[in-house]
Write a structure and sequence with these properties.
The chain is an alpha+beta fold and about 650 residues long. The protein has 5 domains: about 70 residues; about 70 residues; about 70 residues; about 170 residues; about 130 residues, Histidine kinase-like ATPase, C-terminal domain (Heat Shock Protein 90), CATH 3.30.565. β6 and β7 form a beta hairpin.
Length: about 650
């Protein structure tokens, strides 16, 4: 599934005191200042209708209070609305069976023909639809949605039609029927009106349309509907819809490679969630934030975000007692966190933790399905007891014989159901293991492709490097040799000796460059000590026969770590360019080279001469040495410093 229960009611947990919206605060004030039980009951039910902005425990407590008052006042509609609030709380705890049991029993009391209670009827029908879809039985869910639409059309209930179209659009989207999903959601929006009664479904539909457009790559449309969701959420005080809209903005910015905006949007979404949920994080926001950090190569941040989330949900005190699988530390929603953790380790190159996390996913799911097979049996038996109790109340005047008959028959059904549930869980576990194997194979293929792409890029870079350096040197030799062969008028023996000496120097440099290139190509990695030794060897070769120039090499290496061959190539080319410039242009008598490395991943290379210097800001037509040095420093993410003034020499420092 592309999204985990996208159609389920928006999850709200543990709102801190500062997280209450103005609407919620106003309703609580109404409750505390209400005069009489009926006025208080009305205020409590209005608060329960704002369930998106309430913690589920708070929602449950107010629903219970409403139930007590409605029963005392003998108010059938208010009692049903209290049951709706209880069902919403159960759905927040992923306790689908309990929610459906409440709704099924209550639906028997209503008909869409009664205009006074029609809103309650369709509200119950849509909660039942959500329960059906939560079991991934989409065929039954779509059938149920169209039945609701037929009834809603008969009674011209545009809100119920919009909500059903929203549900169907989500099912179509989950089956990759994206164009149909967009069409259905937009049609649903056409049934809405700019009135408070429709605000919730407008935000839900707009948020879904933003998701659909994002998935097919229409980023402008996705951003439009995300902004529409955010603005209406801000207007109505629905912080969760604001948070979801910001999350979608972040995804669009990420796709458009606007990384700072993507990070800013997702961090704002996380901030709103903290305002709503307190300490408890949301899985989808953790995954989205980690994705931003991974794409921007902040792998350690991504790993910390995910591991902190996993650690939070692993603490027993953070597990709701009402959750269907509350005692499990490895619920299905945690799978997405572990998958993102595995991806982060793979991108970082931490193969050990990557493999360990994949094993953790497989072992954790094994434990989860084994445990929940037993829990499914217990749930079946609990559900049976609830149904038996309700049947006893409804049929208390039936004979003891019939009551026993129902008891034994229901027990038999419960046992058969438990057996079926166990078989279903076992099959789901087997399929999940297959999916995880496929995931691991996919990750392996992606990793191999990344390595192959990197190797191809490195080959191209080396080929370009040889072309730029060796190719240019050979072209210079060819031009000078042709010039000597043609010997224009007035060409003397002294001129010939001058050109031959120049050809000899360039040929010597070409041989040195080729030797150093081959040396680098023969190695995947080069230790910093070996690199320092090679620099000394290079200096000896370059300054042979140049007695006028003295040179001194100093090295301080505290940790002999490895440099990549590509980085070594860039460093050599930088040194070659600098030394060549000193020899040709500086008229220097002393060259000092200092190479220092105090820890893995960092070094400082300094080249100082006492030559005539130059103005750093000045450009020289036809000479691109400094520009090439700067480009190469950027390729290896090193910082380049150039300090030079006429008649005071030059100092060039490369630091990482």
């Amino acid at each position: 599934m592309k999204r985990f229960l996208l159609f389920m009611t928006v999850s709200f947990i543990a709102i801190q005191a500062q997280g209450q919206s103005r609407q919620v605060d106003s309703l609580k004030y109404r409750i505390s200042t209400s005069k009489g039980e009926r006025q208080r009951l009305s205020a409590i039910l209005d608060l329960c209708a704002m369930f998106e902005t309430l913690p589920k425990d708070t929602l449950w407590n107010y629903a219970q209070k409403a139930m007590v008052l409605a029963t005392k006042l003998d108010d059938k509609s208010s009692r049903s609305l209290a049951i709706v609030a209880q069902a919403n709380a159960y759905m927040e705890w992923d306790n689908v069976d309990s929610a459906k049991a409440l709704v099924d029993a209550e639906l028997l009391k209503y008909s869409p023909a009664d205009a006074a209670t029609r809103d309650i009827y369709f509200n119950l029908r849509h909660i039942k639809l959500t329960c059906i879809a939560a079991t991934s039985d989409y065929e039954d869910a779509i059938t149920e949605a169209y039945r609701i639409i037929q009834e809603a059309e008969k009674y011209k209930d545009s809100l119920a039609i919009a909500e059903s179209l929203n549900s169907i659009s989500i099912y179509k989207y989950d089956f990759d029927q994206n164009n149909q999903a967009i069409s259905l959601a937009l049609k649903g929006l056409s049934f809405t009106k700019p009135a408070p009664r429709y605000y919730h479904i407008i935000m839900s539909l707009s948020g879904d349309v933003a998701e659909y457009y994002y998935y097919i790559g229409k980023l402008d449309s996705a951003m439009y509907y995300a902004d529409r969701t955010y603005n209406l959420g801000k207007k109505t005080g629905y912080l969760r819809f604001q948070s979801l809209a910001l999350q979608k903005r972040s995804a669009v910015y990420l796709k458009a490679k606007q990384y700072p905006k993507a990070e800013e949007a997702i961090l704002e979404s996380v901030r709103l969630d903290q305002q709503i949920d307190g300490d408890e994080p949301r899985d989808d926001n953790l995954v989205a934030l980690a994705d931003v950090y991974n794409i921007t190569n902040q792998f350690d941040k991504a790993i910390k975000v995910v591991t902190d989330g996993i650690a939070f949900y692993s603490k027993p005190k953070n597990i709701s007692p009402h959750a269907k699988h509350g005692a499990s530390n490895f619920g299905m929603q945690r799978v997405y966190l572990y998958r993102m953790l595995a991806r982060s380790y793979r991108l970082k190159g931490d193969s050990k933790n990557y493999e360990f996390t994949l094993v953790r996913i497989i072992n954790g799911l094994d434990s989860f399905y084994t445990k929940n097979s037993a829990e499914a049996i217990a749930d079946f038996e609990t559900k049976y007891q609830v149904q038996k109790k309700e049947a006893t109340i409804a049929h208390q005047q039936l004979s003891l014989v019939r009551e026993n008959y129902l008891l034994y028959g229901s027990a038999l059904i419960a046992m058969l159901g438990a057996a079926i549930a166990f078989l279903i869980f076992r099959e789901v576990r087997r399929k999940q293991q297959i999916k995880l194997q496929q995931l691991k194979e996919e990750e392996r293929l992606l990793s191999e492709k990344a390595v192959a792409d990197a190797e191809e890029m490195e080959r191209r870079r080396i080929a370009a490097d040889l072309h730029d350096n060796l190719g240019a040197q050979l072209s210079f030799i060819k031009r000078n040799v042709n010039f000597i062969i043609d010997q224009p008028a007035g060409f003397s023996a002294e001129d010939e000796r001058k050109y031959l000496n120049s050809v000899n120097d360039i040929a010597q440099n070409a041989i040195i460059d080729l030797r150093e290139t081959i040396w680098v190509l023969n190695k995947d990695e080069v230790s910093v000590q070996e690199f320092a030794d090679k620099l000394k060897s290079y200096m000896k070769q370059q300054l042979v026969g140049r007695e006028k120039i003295r040179w001194h090499f100093t090295e301080v290496i505290h940790c002999d770590w490895k440099l990549s061959s590509g980085e070594v190539m860039h460093l050599f080319r930088i040194v070659q360019e600098v030394i060549s410039n000193i020899i040709k242009h500086a008229d220097a008598e002393q060259i000092n080279i200092n190479f220092e490395s105090y820890g893995a991943g960092s070094y400082r290379l300094e080249i100082i001469d006492d030559g005539k210097g130059f103005v750093v800001s000045e450009t020289f037509d036809g000479h691109y040495g400094l520009e090439n040095i700067g480009q190469r420093a950027g390729e290896i993410s090193a910082t380049l410093f150039i300090n030079s003034h006429p008649d005071t020499g030059t100092r060039i420092e490369l630091q990482k």
